[in-house]
Amino acid sequence: MVKKIRVLVAKPGLDGHDRGAKIVARALRDAGMEVVYTGLHQTAEQIVNTAMQEDVDVVGLSLLSGAHMTLFVDVAVLLKEKQMDDVLLIGGGIIPQEDVPRLKKAGIAEVFGPGTPVEEIVRYIKKNVKR
Amino acid sequence: MTDLAEKIIAGDHRSIARLITQVENNAPDAVETMKQIHPHTGQASIIGVTGVMGGGKSSLIFELALAYRTEGKKVGIIAIDPTSPFSGGALLGDRIRMTELSMDEGVFIRSMGTRGMMGGLTSSLYDVVEILDAAGMNVILIETVGVGQDEVDIVKIADTTLVVLVPGLGDSVQTIKAGLMEIADIFVVNKADKTGVEQTVAELESMLDLVNNQERRIPIVATSAKEKKGIQQLVVQIAEHQAYLKKSQTFEKRRRQRYEAELIEIIRKRLMDFIFDEKKLKTTVDCCIDQISKKELDPYSAADQILGKILK
Ligand SMILES: Nc1nc2c(ncn2[C@@H]2O[C@H](COP(=O)(O)OP(=O)(O)O)[C@@H](O)[C@H]2O)c(=O)[nH]1
Ligand SMILES: [Mg+2]
Question: Tell me, what's the ipTM?
Answer without folding.
Answer: 0.93
